[in-house]
Design a protein that fits this description.
single chain; 11 helices; 48% helix; alpha+beta; two-stranded antiparallel ribbon
Length: 357
C-alpha cells in the first residue's frame, strides 16, 4: 500500500509540474519522457505482435521503448503519420487492487516498427504485448504511427520504437524524467523559470542537465568532433609532407634535365617550346600517378571500409569530392614543381647549361 501511495504521489507531481510549466510565459508546449533522446540511453523489450510470426525461432520481436506524456511529439516537432498522439484520457490512474506493473492499454509505434511487422497493412487498431512467450497477451492497442527519428545517437540507425503513456503503464522506472519544452523566446530565461518552478513544487528534486536541443546534439557528437579534429590535423600534416615531398621529387627530376634543356636552346629551340616539352612530361607523370593512386586508395578504403566508416559521420569513406580535391591539390603541386625549375633552367646561359652536372 505504501508503494502504491508513493506512485500516486509521483504521478500527481508530474501532472502538476506539466501544468505549471505550461503556464510559464514563453513556453508553447511541454512533453515528458523517461528516456532522454541522443544521450546514449536505451530501454528495449521483447514484444509479441498480433498476427506476426517470427521468421526464425529464437529471433523474437524487440522494440526500443519509451514512456511519454501527451504533446511529446508536438513539442519535439515530430509529425504523426497516422492515428493520434496520447491525450490525458490515455493516462489512466491506478485503481485499488490493480497491478503496479500492468501494461498500457494503448501504444504508438514508429514507421520502422510498422514497416517490419505490419508490411502492407494498417497497424492502427492492432495489438502488441510485452514478452515473447506464446501465451503473451497482446492487450496494447496501437493508436498512432509517428515519423522515424533518432533514439540513442545520431550515428545509430533508427530502431523499431514503441511509445507508451507515461502515467498509465505501471509508472515503474520513472525515478527520473526528462522534460522537453518548446519556447517562443530565448531559452535562458525559460530554463531559469522552469528550474524555479520545480523547486517550488519540491525543493528536494534535483534539476540537472538543462540544455537546448542544439546543445544536446553537439554533446552527443563530442567524440566525433574530437576524432574529426585530430584527423584534420594529421591529415593536414600528411598533406603538407606529401606536398613537400612531391615538389622536391619533381623539382629534382626537372633540374637533372638542365643540360638537356641547354642543348635544345643551343639547337634553336624557343623557350616556350622547351617549357611545353617539360610540362608535357610532367603532365604524363601526374596522369600515371593519378591512374595508379586513385584506384589504390579506393581499394584500400574498401578493405578497411568498416573501420573507416565507424569514425566518420556524414561523410562516406569513398567521398568523391574529397578524393577529387586531393587529386587536384597533388596535381597542382606537381605542375608547380615542374614549372618553376623549368623556368629557371631556360634562363640559364646555354654554355653554363651544357656544363651543368
Amino acid at each position: 500500500m505504501a508503494q502504491r501511495i508513493q506512485h500516486r504521489a509521483v504521478q500527481s507531481f508530474y501532472q502538476r509540474l506539466t501544468e505549471e510549466l505550461r503556464a510559464i510565459p514563453g513556453i508553447r508546449s511541454v512533453g515528458l519522457a523517461t528516456t532522454r533522446r541522443l544521450d546514449g540511453d536505451e530501454w528495449d523489450s521483447f514484444l509479441t505482435v498480433e498476427g506476426y510470426s517470427a521468421p526464425e525461432r529464437g529471433n523474437p520481436v524487440q522494440g526500443y521503448m519509451d514512456k511519454i506524456s501527451p504533446d511529446y511529439f508536438a513539442t519535439l516537432g515530430v509529425p504523426m503519420i497516422s492515428g493520434r498522439e496520447f491525450t490525458s484520457s490515455d493516462d489512466r490512474p491506478f485503481k485499488t487492487g490493480e497491478d503496479l506493473d500492468a501494461a498500457a492499454s494503448v501504444a504508438i509505434i514508429n514507421e520502422s516498427f510498422a514497416r517490419h511487422y505490419f508490411p502492407g497493412r494498417n497497424p492502427i487498431g492492432r495489438h502488441i504485448g510485452f514478452g515473447s512467450d506464446p501465451g503473451t497477451k497482446t492487450n496494447m492497442e496501437i493508436i498512432g504511427v509517428v515519423k522515424d527519428f533518432k533514439y540513442i545517437g545520431l550515428r545509430d540507425e533508427i530502431p523499431d520504437q514503441v511509445f507508451l503513456p507515461y502515467l498509465e503503464t505501471g509508472f515503474t522506472g520513472q525515478s527520473h524524467m526528462t522534460v522537453y519544452f518548446r519556447t517562443a523566446v530565448g531559452p535562458a530565461p525559460v530554463m531559469l523559470a522552469a528550474r524555479q518552478k520545480v523547486h517550488e513544487l519540491d525543493a528536494n528534486i534535483p534539476v540537472v542537465a538543462m540544455r537546448t536541443t542544439e546543445e544536446q546534439i553537439s554533446e552527443s557528437l563530442a567524440t566525433e568532433r574530437m576524432i574529426a579534429s585530430l584527423s584534420s590535423v594529421f591529415g593536414l600534416l600528411a598533406t603538407l609532407l606529401a606536398t613537400i615531398g612531391l615538389y622536391g621529387v619533381m623539382s629534382y627530376a626537372v633540374a637533372r634535365r638542365t643540360r638537356e634543356i641547354g642543348i635544345h636552346v643551343v639547337l634553336g629551340a624557343s623557350p616556350s617550346s622547351v617549357l611545353k616539352m617539360v610540362m608535357h612530361e610532367v603532365l604524363f607523370l601526374i596522369g600515371v600517378g593519378l591512374a595508379v593512386g586513385i584506384p589504390a586508395s579506393i581499394a584500400a578504403v574498401r578493405l578497411g571500409g568498416h573501420w573507416i566508416s565507424a569514425i566518420l559521420f556524414g561523410v562516406l569513406p569513398t567521398d568523391a569530392p574529397t578524393i577529387a580535391l586531393a587529386a587536384l591539390l597533388m596535381g597542382t603541386v606537381a605542375l608547380l614543381a615542374g614549372y618553376f625549375p623549368a623556368r629557371r633552367a631556360m634562363r640559364v646561359d646555354p654554355m653554363v647549361a651544357l656544363r651543368y652536372e
